[in-house]
Specification:
This protein has 364 residues and is of the alpha/beta class. The protein has 13 helices and nine strands. The strands form two sheets. Strands 1, 2, 4, 5, 6, 7 and 8 form a seven-stranded mixed β-sheet that branches. It has a two-stranded antiparallel sheet with strand order 3-9. The longest helix has 35 residues.
Length: 364
Protein backbone atom coordinates (compact mmCIF):
# COMPACT_ATOMS: atom_id res chain seq x y z
CA UNK A 1 0.00 0.00 0.00
CA UNK A 2 1.21 3.48 -0.86
CA UNK A 3 1.10 6.40 1.58
CA UNK A 4 2.02 9.89 0.43
CA UNK A 5 3.70 12.55 2.55
CA UNK A 6 3.10 15.63 0.43
CA UNK A 7 2.85 19.32 1.14
CA UNK A 8 3.36 20.88 4.57
CA UNK A 9 3.26 18.77 7.72
CA UNK A 10 0.32 20.11 9.74
CA UNK A 11 -1.73 19.42 12.85
CA UNK A 12 -4.89 17.29 12.76
CA UNK A 13 -7.14 20.28 13.43
CA UNK A 14 -5.91 22.11 10.32
CA UNK A 15 -6.21 19.21 7.85
CA UNK A 16 -9.77 19.98 6.76
CA UNK A 17 -8.90 23.58 5.88
CA UNK A 18 -6.15 22.47 3.50
CA UNK A 19 -8.51 19.85 2.04
CA UNK A 20 -11.16 22.51 1.58
CA UNK A 21 -8.73 24.69 -0.40
CA UNK A 22 -7.50 21.65 -2.35
CA UNK A 23 -3.93 22.06 -1.03
CA UNK A 24 -1.71 19.04 -0.44
CA UNK A 25 -0.90 18.65 3.24
CA UNK A 26 -0.19 15.79 5.65
CA UNK A 27 -1.36 15.41 9.25
CA UNK A 28 -0.91 12.53 11.74
CA UNK A 29 -4.61 11.61 11.52
CA UNK A 30 -4.39 11.32 7.74
CA UNK A 31 -1.43 8.94 7.97
CA UNK A 32 -2.99 7.02 10.87
CA UNK A 33 -6.16 6.40 8.86
CA UNK A 34 -4.18 4.98 5.94
CA UNK A 35 -2.06 2.80 8.22
CA UNK A 36 -5.23 1.40 9.77
CA UNK A 37 -6.44 0.44 6.31
CA UNK A 38 -3.10 -1.21 5.57
CA UNK A 39 -3.26 -3.30 8.76
CA UNK A 40 -0.03 -5.36 8.68
CA UNK A 41 0.75 -4.85 4.99
CA UNK A 42 4.09 -3.51 3.83
CA UNK A 43 4.05 0.23 3.13
CA UNK A 44 5.60 2.27 0.31
CA UNK A 45 6.06 5.79 1.64
CA UNK A 46 6.33 8.52 -1.01
CA UNK A 47 7.79 11.79 0.31
CA UNK A 48 7.79 15.25 -1.24
CA UNK A 49 7.52 17.89 1.45
CA UNK A 50 9.31 21.01 2.62
CA UNK A 51 8.46 20.28 6.26
CA UNK A 52 6.17 21.90 8.79
CA UNK A 53 5.17 21.14 12.37
CA UNK A 54 7.86 19.32 14.34
CA UNK A 55 5.34 17.75 16.71
CA UNK A 56 3.08 16.53 13.90
CA UNK A 57 6.15 15.07 12.18
CA UNK A 58 7.16 13.35 15.43
CA UNK A 59 3.74 11.72 15.70
CA UNK A 60 3.88 10.53 12.08
CA UNK A 61 7.42 9.21 12.66
CA UNK A 62 6.18 7.22 15.67
CA UNK A 63 3.16 5.83 13.78
CA UNK A 64 5.41 4.59 10.97
CA UNK A 65 8.04 3.10 13.30
CA UNK A 66 5.26 1.28 15.15
CA UNK A 67 3.75 -0.19 11.98
CA UNK A 68 4.18 -4.00 11.94
CA UNK A 69 4.80 -4.20 8.18
CA UNK A 70 7.95 -3.12 6.37
CA UNK A 71 8.11 0.59 5.49
CA UNK A 72 10.03 1.48 2.33
CA UNK A 73 10.49 5.22 1.95
CA UNK A 74 11.07 6.99 -1.35
CA UNK A 75 12.13 10.65 -1.39
CA UNK A 76 10.64 11.73 -4.72
CA UNK A 77 11.83 15.35 -4.84
CA UNK A 78 12.30 16.95 -1.42
CA UNK A 79 12.48 15.81 2.18
CA UNK A 80 13.32 18.96 4.06
CA UNK A 81 13.31 19.74 7.74
CA UNK A 82 10.39 18.05 9.53
CA UNK A 83 9.74 15.90 6.44
CA UNK A 84 13.28 14.53 6.70
CA UNK A 85 12.44 13.41 10.26
CA UNK A 86 9.48 11.43 8.91
CA UNK A 87 11.75 9.88 6.27
CA UNK A 88 13.98 8.48 9.01
CA UNK A 89 11.11 6.15 10.04
CA UNK A 90 11.54 4.05 6.88
CA UNK A 91 13.15 0.63 7.26
CA UNK A 92 14.69 1.13 3.81
CA UNK A 93 15.02 4.72 2.59
CA UNK A 94 15.60 5.43 -1.09
CA UNK A 95 16.19 8.79 -2.73
CA UNK A 96 15.66 9.83 -6.34
CA UNK A 97 18.85 11.01 -8.06
CA UNK A 98 17.23 14.39 -8.65
CA UNK A 99 15.97 14.82 -5.07
CA UNK A 100 17.27 16.86 -2.14
CA UNK A 101 17.31 16.39 1.62
CA UNK A 102 17.69 19.26 4.04
CA UNK A 103 18.19 19.24 7.81
CA UNK A 104 18.24 22.33 10.01
CA UNK A 105 17.26 23.68 13.41
CA UNK A 106 13.70 24.09 14.60
CA UNK A 107 12.32 27.62 14.79
CA UNK A 108 9.38 29.40 16.39
CA UNK A 109 7.93 32.84 16.97
CA UNK A 110 8.39 34.17 20.50
CA UNK A 111 7.78 37.34 22.42
CA UNK A 112 8.48 38.62 25.90
CA UNK A 113 11.43 39.80 27.95
CA UNK A 114 14.93 38.30 28.14
CA UNK A 115 13.72 35.53 30.45
CA UNK A 116 11.12 34.47 27.90
CA UNK A 117 13.75 34.54 25.17
CA UNK A 118 16.12 32.40 27.26
CA UNK A 119 13.32 29.94 27.90
CA UNK A 120 12.45 29.82 24.19
CA UNK A 121 16.11 29.28 23.30
CA UNK A 122 16.45 26.36 25.70
CA UNK A 123 13.17 24.91 24.46
CA UNK A 124 14.35 25.01 20.84
CA UNK A 125 17.67 23.42 21.77
CA UNK A 126 15.76 20.53 23.34
CA UNK A 127 13.62 20.21 20.22
CA UNK A 128 16.77 20.12 18.08
CA UNK A 129 18.10 17.31 20.27
CA UNK A 130 14.94 15.25 19.75
CA UNK A 131 15.09 15.86 16.00
CA UNK A 132 18.71 14.68 15.99
CA UNK A 133 17.56 11.46 17.69
CA UNK A 134 15.81 10.39 14.49
CA UNK A 135 18.90 11.14 12.37
CA UNK A 136 21.19 9.37 14.88
CA UNK A 137 19.11 6.18 14.96
CA UNK A 138 19.19 5.99 11.16
CA UNK A 139 22.81 7.00 10.49
CA UNK A 140 24.71 6.11 13.67
CA UNK A 141 26.46 9.50 13.49
CA UNK A 142 27.35 11.39 16.66
CA UNK A 143 24.94 13.98 18.07
CA UNK A 144 27.62 16.68 17.89
CA UNK A 145 28.12 16.11 14.17
CA UNK A 146 24.38 16.02 13.47
CA UNK A 147 23.69 19.15 15.51
CA UNK A 148 26.52 20.90 13.67
CA UNK A 149 24.95 19.91 10.32
CA UNK A 150 21.60 21.24 11.55
CA UNK A 151 23.21 24.52 12.65
CA UNK A 152 24.61 24.93 9.14
CA UNK A 153 21.24 24.16 7.44
CA UNK A 154 22.72 21.32 5.43
CA UNK A 155 21.38 20.49 1.97
CA UNK A 156 22.27 16.99 0.81
CA UNK A 157 22.39 15.47 -2.64
CA UNK A 158 21.47 11.76 -2.85
CA UNK A 159 25.17 10.82 -2.93
CA UNK A 160 25.92 12.97 0.12
CA UNK A 161 22.92 11.59 2.02
CA UNK A 162 24.16 8.10 1.22
CA UNK A 163 27.67 8.94 2.45
CA UNK A 164 26.19 10.22 5.72
CA UNK A 165 24.10 6.99 5.95
CA UNK A 166 20.88 8.98 6.14
CA UNK A 167 19.52 6.93 3.23
CA UNK A 168 20.09 3.34 2.15
CA UNK A 169 20.08 3.65 -1.62
CA UNK A 170 19.90 6.09 -4.53
CA UNK A 171 16.97 5.16 -6.76
CA UNK A 172 17.56 4.01 -10.34
CA UNK A 173 21.20 3.25 -9.60
CA UNK A 174 23.13 0.31 -8.28
CA UNK A 175 22.05 -0.60 -4.69
CA UNK A 176 24.05 0.89 -2.37
CA UNK A 177 3.99 27.63 20.23
CA UNK A 178 3.83 25.83 16.98
CA UNK A 179 7.39 24.78 16.37
CA UNK A 180 8.20 24.71 12.66
CA UNK A 181 11.04 23.15 10.80
CA UNK A 182 10.45 23.82 7.14
CA UNK A 183 12.37 24.81 4.01
CA UNK A 184 9.53 26.08 1.87
CA UNK A 185 6.59 25.18 4.06
CA UNK A 186 3.54 26.15 1.99
CA UNK A 187 1.63 26.59 5.26
CA UNK A 188 -1.54 28.64 5.21
CA UNK A 189 -0.82 31.68 7.42
CA UNK A 190 -2.11 31.16 10.95
CA UNK A 191 -3.96 34.46 10.72
CA UNK A 192 -5.95 33.09 7.77
CA UNK A 193 -6.82 29.91 9.67
CA UNK A 194 -7.93 31.89 12.73
CA UNK A 195 -9.97 34.24 10.56
CA UNK A 196 -11.72 31.33 8.86
CA UNK A 197 -12.51 29.69 12.18
CA UNK A 198 -14.13 32.90 13.44
CA UNK A 199 -16.11 33.52 10.26
CA UNK A 200 -17.30 29.93 9.94
CA UNK A 201 -18.76 30.02 13.44
CA UNK A 202 -21.61 32.08 11.97
CA UNK A 203 -22.36 29.59 9.19
CA UNK A 204 -25.13 26.94 9.47
CA UNK A 205 -24.31 24.05 11.76
CA UNK A 206 -22.43 21.16 10.11
CA UNK A 207 -21.79 23.21 6.98
CA UNK A 208 -18.05 23.32 7.59
CA UNK A 209 -17.25 20.17 9.53
CA UNK A 210 -14.27 18.11 8.33
CA UNK A 211 -16.55 15.28 7.17
CA UNK A 212 -18.35 17.61 4.78
CA UNK A 213 -15.31 19.39 3.34
CA UNK A 214 -15.37 20.11 -0.41
CA UNK A 215 -12.24 21.37 -2.24
CA UNK A 216 -12.54 24.82 -3.79
CA UNK A 217 -11.93 23.47 -7.28
CA UNK A 218 -15.02 21.27 -7.06
CA UNK A 219 -17.56 23.78 -8.26
CA UNK A 220 -20.58 21.49 -8.72
CA UNK A 221 -22.62 20.85 -5.58
CA UNK A 222 -24.00 17.37 -4.75
CA UNK A 223 -27.68 17.10 -5.61
CA UNK A 224 -30.50 16.51 -3.14
CA UNK A 225 -28.57 17.88 -0.17
CA UNK A 226 -30.75 18.63 2.80
CA UNK A 227 -31.20 22.16 4.09
CA UNK A 228 -28.30 23.19 6.31
CA UNK A 229 -25.77 20.71 4.85
CA UNK A 230 -24.69 22.71 1.82
CA UNK A 231 -20.94 23.19 1.52
CA UNK A 232 -19.84 26.52 0.10
CA UNK A 233 -17.40 26.73 -2.76
CA UNK A 234 -14.95 29.56 -3.46
CA UNK A 235 -17.42 31.47 -5.62
CA UNK A 236 -20.03 31.48 -2.85
CA UNK A 237 -17.49 32.70 -0.29
CA UNK A 238 -16.57 35.51 -2.68
CA UNK A 239 -20.23 36.46 -3.13
CA UNK A 240 -21.50 35.92 0.41
CA UNK A 241 -18.40 36.81 2.43
CA UNK A 242 -16.47 39.33 0.30
CA UNK A 243 -14.57 40.69 3.31
CA UNK A 244 -13.24 37.25 4.23
CA UNK A 245 -12.45 36.50 0.59
CA UNK A 246 -10.51 39.75 0.15
CA UNK A 247 -8.58 39.23 3.38
CA UNK A 248 -7.60 35.71 2.37
CA UNK A 249 -6.62 36.96 -1.07
CA UNK A 250 -4.52 39.79 0.41
CA UNK A 251 -2.82 37.47 2.88
CA UNK A 252 -2.10 35.03 0.10
CA UNK A 253 -0.57 37.84 -1.96
CA UNK A 254 1.59 38.97 0.95
CA UNK A 255 2.70 35.41 1.61
CA UNK A 256 3.52 34.97 -2.06
CA UNK A 257 5.63 38.13 -2.12
CA UNK A 258 7.42 37.09 1.06
CA UNK A 259 8.05 33.59 -0.32
CA UNK A 260 9.42 35.01 -3.59
CA UNK A 261 11.71 37.43 -1.74
CA UNK A 262 12.93 34.56 0.42
CA UNK A 263 13.54 32.44 -2.70
CA UNK A 264 15.57 35.17 -4.40
CA UNK A 265 17.57 35.83 -1.23
CA UNK A 266 18.35 32.13 -0.84
CA UNK A 267 19.53 31.90 -4.46
CA UNK A 268 21.69 35.02 -4.08
CA UNK A 269 23.37 33.42 -1.06
CA UNK A 270 24.67 30.50 -3.12
CA UNK A 271 28.45 30.46 -3.58
CA UNK A 272 30.18 29.86 -6.90
CA UNK A 273 31.76 26.38 -7.04
CA UNK A 274 35.45 26.38 -7.93
CA UNK A 275 34.97 24.42 -11.16
CA UNK A 276 32.41 26.81 -12.69
CA UNK A 277 33.27 29.88 -14.73
CA UNK A 278 31.89 33.16 -13.40
CA UNK A 279 29.80 33.70 -16.55
CA UNK A 280 28.25 30.21 -16.37
CA UNK A 281 27.53 30.68 -12.66
CA UNK A 282 25.75 33.98 -13.27
CA UNK A 283 23.73 32.49 -16.15
CA UNK A 284 22.44 29.67 -13.91
CA UNK A 285 21.62 32.12 -11.10
CA UNK A 286 19.77 34.54 -13.41
CA UNK A 287 17.82 31.72 -15.05
CA UNK A 288 16.71 30.41 -11.65
CA UNK A 289 15.70 33.85 -10.39
CA UNK A 290 13.88 35.22 -13.43
CA UNK A 291 12.99 32.37 -15.81
CA UNK A 292 12.55 28.91 -14.28
CA UNK A 293 11.48 30.11 -10.80
CA UNK A 294 13.63 27.29 -9.38
CA UNK A 295 14.21 26.97 -5.65
CA UNK A 296 17.61 27.52 -4.05
CA UNK A 297 17.90 23.76 -3.57
CA UNK A 298 17.22 23.02 -7.25
CA UNK A 299 19.67 25.75 -8.26
CA UNK A 300 22.34 24.30 -5.98
CA UNK A 301 21.87 20.91 -7.63
CA UNK A 302 22.23 22.47 -11.09
CA UNK A 303 25.42 24.26 -10.01
CA UNK A 304 26.78 21.03 -8.56
CA UNK A 305 26.01 19.12 -11.76
CA UNK A 306 27.70 21.84 -13.82
CA UNK A 307 30.78 21.71 -11.59
CA UNK A 308 30.95 17.93 -11.93
CA UNK A 309 30.63 18.17 -15.72
CA UNK A 310 33.39 20.77 -15.90
CA UNK A 311 35.64 18.69 -13.65
CA UNK A 312 35.08 15.58 -15.77
CA UNK A 313 35.76 17.54 -18.96
CA UNK A 314 38.96 18.95 -17.48
CA UNK A 315 40.17 15.46 -16.54
CA UNK A 316 39.23 14.18 -19.99
CA UNK A 317 41.20 16.98 -21.65
CA UNK A 318 44.20 16.32 -19.38
CA UNK A 319 44.26 12.62 -20.30
CA UNK A 320 43.97 13.42 -24.00
CA UNK A 321 46.90 15.85 -23.76
CA UNK A 322 49.04 13.25 -21.99
CA UNK A 323 48.16 10.65 -24.63
CA UNK A 324 49.15 13.09 -27.39
CA UNK A 325 52.45 13.84 -25.63
CA UNK A 326 53.17 10.12 -25.27
CA UNK A 327 52.37 9.49 -28.93
CA UNK A 328 54.81 12.23 -29.97
CA UNK A 329 57.60 10.69 -27.86
CA UNK A 330 56.95 7.23 -29.26
CA UNK A 331 57.52 8.57 -32.79
CA UNK A 332 61.05 9.79 -31.98
CA UNK A 333 63.69 7.54 -33.69
CA UNK A 334 66.23 5.97 -31.34
CA UNK A 335 70.06 5.69 -31.89
CA UNK A 336 73.23 4.34 -30.36
CA UNK A 337 74.28 5.88 -27.11
CA UNK A 338 77.42 8.09 -27.40
CA UNK A 339 80.65 6.49 -26.15
CA UNK A 340 81.82 7.58 -22.69
CA UNK A 341 84.38 10.33 -22.48
CA UNK A 342 88.10 9.38 -22.35
CA UNK A 343 87.44 5.93 -23.81
CA UNK A 344 89.93 3.57 -25.45
CA UNK A 345 93.68 4.22 -25.26
CA UNK A 346 93.32 7.30 -23.09
CA UNK A 347 91.60 5.20 -20.41
CA UNK A 348 94.41 2.61 -20.53
CA UNK A 349 97.06 5.31 -20.15
CA UNK A 350 95.24 6.80 -17.13
CA UNK A 351 94.99 3.38 -15.51
CA UNK A 352 98.70 2.65 -16.04
CA UNK A 353 99.62 6.06 -14.57
CA UNK A 354 97.53 5.47 -11.40
CA UNK A 355 98.99 1.96 -10.85
CA UNK A 356 102.54 3.26 -11.36
CA UNK A 357 101.92 6.01 -8.85
CA UNK A 358 100.76 3.60 -6.14
CA UNK A 359 103.78 1.38 -6.75
CA UNK A 360 106.09 4.32 -6.20
CA UNK A 361 104.43 5.31 -2.94
CA UNK A 362 101.61 7.61 -3.98
CA UNK A 363 100.33 9.91 -6.63
CA UNK A 364 101.41 13.54 -6.36
Amino acid sequence: MKISIRGPIISNSDQWIYDWFGIDATSPSKVSEQLSQAKSEDIELEINSGGGSVFAASEIYTLLKDHPGKVTGKIMALAASAASVIAMAADDLLMAPTAQMMIHNASMQAQGDYRDMDHSSNFLKNVNQTIANAYQIKSGKSYDELLSMMDAETWLTPQQALEHKLIDEVMFSDPAAQVVASANNGLIPQAVIDKMRNELKNMPENSHTPNNVTPVNQQEQPKNQEEGEKVMNLEEIQNNHPELFNQIKQMGHEEGVAAENSRIKAIDSLKKPQDIKAADFQDIINKAKFESQASAGDTAVELLNKAVQNDQQEKHNYLNNRENDAAALNNVQGGDAPPPANSGADNNQDADFIVSGFQKGGVQ
